[in-house]
Amino acid sequence: MFDKLKQLKQLKDLQSALAQEKFDAEKEGIKITINGKLEIELLQLNPSLEKEKQEKFLKDLINETIRKMQLKLAQKMSQMPGLKF
Predict the structure, then answer these.
(1) Most CB contacts within 10 A, which of 5, 16, 29, 35?
(2) Helix H or strand E encompassing 29
């Protein structure tokens, strides 16, 4: 039981640490920043691009940023001793 409580504390600590992280991506003048709580902190569009291109680039950038976040989470979890899933 104490192992489970220890793991729960580790996960809460990981969640707090990840919430402080910021993940950025940029393409063709479009920028996005998402924090570790999956909140968009910055969204900058490029008005000189066509609407369709902006939509495509924005979708790609959001997906890229989320992948960066998932990778960082996996790295942090792999460093946690005794955490088994």
Answers:
(1) 35
(2) none
pTM exceeds 0.70, yes or no:
yes
Residue 84 lies in a domain: no
Task: Count CB atoms within 10 A of the CB of residue 21.
Answer: 15
pLDDT tens, 52-72? 999 999 999 999 999 998 898
CATH of the domain at 58: 3.30.1310.10
Domain count for the chain: 1
Task: Collapse the DSSP code of 47 into the 3-class scheme (helix H, G, I; strand E, B; otherwise coil) and give the result.
Answer: coil
Please measure the distance between the N-terminal and C-terminal CA atoms of the chain and give it in whole angstroms: 16
- The boundaries of the domain holding residue 12 are 2-78
DSSP lists the bridge partners of residue 35 as: 22
